[in-house]
Amino acid sequence: MDSFLEFEESIAGKPGGSWVTPASNAKFSLLAISLALACGIFGVPLESWILPDGLFELVAKAESEGASSQYALIFGTISAIVIVFAWWVTMTALIKWT
What we know:
Number of helices: 4
Protein name: NADH:quinone oxidoreductase/Mrp antiporter membrane subunit domain-containing protein
Number of strands: 0
Transmembrane segments: 28-51, 71-95
Oligomer: single chain
Largest sheet: none
Keywords: Membrane, Transmembrane, Transmembrane helix
Structural class: mainly alpha
Helix content: 55-70%
């Protein structure tokens, strides 16, 4: 877990919130990655032109526009990985005040 926290600090920065202690740092990291995974897989129930869709919506959208199931799944997976990463950095910055 220490290497993950070091990786997180190298990307998002050191925590600045007074509520982030060495004991709670890992818990806040797990919260941020859990929220990011949920947003990346299921999407955010707001306007789709503001926030990116999740994995399932991206695959369905690609298939409805004529892509084969295999290409739609590849597109959705790659896009979801990028979306999860973006949400993870954002959630970490918001939760930990980096």
